[in-house]
């Protein structure tokens, strides 16, 4: 979410009492921050190229993580890895939460400086959600400091202490990230869709690239990536759209440039993944 610094952040009023506020802490690898209340909004299965770290303030959210359904409420902490597929749906009454989107670079920097750390490979979290009231309280306090404080030293300390605690308690290391652990044919398809996201892509092209049949290709891709090729390509297109919207480009132009058929097509997929419409996101950014 390529957004402004906190002092210029903007809140967006959504439907039926829903609100979302985004901002960016540019000094910390463009750390992106979100505080939101959702009553009816349902996130489509999607991924991020950053970590997703945060906690629920109130209410309950149901979601699928690693293929299993679970429910998070007050005291729940989310630690979702880059490229890890997840969704989210409010239960009755909705929920409020605060989320951070720290880059891989920032998380590795913090991990390397922890006492006794011997990092090797890529940082990841085996448990994507845990019930840890003390850590949730620490993360919510950090988030509030980032939202309210203008003191850079206070915010620096808060980020390193809170994210360091998350990594120290639950972080692990693996040799390769999710995409790197997939078979070469799947990696090649990912590379192809990232390179040609602004063009039409169909199964015939992916089959020619991978040497697989259509039905087998979809099953193998979903097995290793946690989502279908179409869902993966849509994620890539939405990320590209976010970057262009943050530069002030018009949603209608962004839609065509990023491989969507029109602005309506972009609106539908963007809101399902980001929580707000492209026009509202552009106004924030």
Automatic annotation (TrEMBL):
Q: Tell me the GO molecular function terms.
A: DNA-binding transcription factor activity; sequence-specific DNA binding
Coiled coil start-end: none
- All residue ranges annotated as the HTH araC/xylS-type domain in the record: 187-284
> In its keyword annotation, does this UniProt entry include Metal-binding?
no
Give yes or no: UniProt keyword Transcription regulation. yes
Key words of the record:
DNA-binding, Transcription, Transcription regulation
Q: Write down the InterPro entries for this protein, in alphabetical order.
A: AraC-bd, AraC_XylS_family_regulators, Homeodomain-like_sf, HTH-like, HTH_AraC
Query: What Gene3D superfamilies has UniProt attached to this entry?
Result: Homeodomain-like (1.10.10.60)
Give the protein's recorded name: Putative HTH-type transcriptional regulator YbfI
Native source organism of the sequence: Maritalea myrionectae
